[in-house]
What we know:
By secondary structure, the protein is mainly alpha-helical.
Amino acid sequence: MLESELFGHVKGAFTGALGDRVGRFEAADGGTLFLDEVAEIPPVIQVKLLRVLQERVFERVGENKPRRTDARLISATNKNLSEMVSEGRFREDLFYRLNVFPIRVPSLRERVDDIPLLVHRLLSRIADRHGGAVPGITDDVLRLFRSYRWPGNVRELQAALEYAMIRSQGATIDVHHLPPSIVQPSELAVARNCILDEQAIRMALEKHHYNRTAAAKELGISRITLWRRMRDWGIASRTGANANHLRRAQETAGGSKVPGSEQTSPVYR
């Protein structure tokens, strides 16, 4: 019960109250109390919270004895409290009591350059908690993370990494290890480098005579990613790739030479 958590209770105040309990405000007397997700506090608790902030007085659940506290309150929310006040879902007087010195923390999608650092920090934390080694992570995953909107911010990122670590079983984390909700159709343009099939890669390479720079550009991926996909699918950078291409063209033309074929040599970039 939130009221008991914040203000404490006395023995017998409700079923299961087998003894007195000190609440958060009482325990934080002379210090600082952090109250997360303040927008989720029910209206009846909002009234009592307002009293504590205004009068520095509260009562434990089940007693009428006023108790004082000198705790400083820091609160956080991912909701728009101003809109909630306008909609009547959050007390206006409490809002102004809390909104003395607001600090806006940018959402994860607003600071994509921080994602690689956050990923490695979170992976280390998760690995420490589970007693395992910190896994590697591919550039494809980081690229996808940069494009994703992260409605759940860092918590969603941490959940995605935990899911991926479980699926990867110690191997390097790749896109196919991520939750399905992360790799969705809206991210296909960015994630296509991770889900391209062998046929698409071969077609692009043959179209551009195994010029990896041109093939990668058409596929919308980097040359390094293309090289990795070629390695994964066993597609070698064959020196005879262009010759094979021209030979097939000659056979299709009935054995006649394709103009300029005698002067063409494989080009690899």
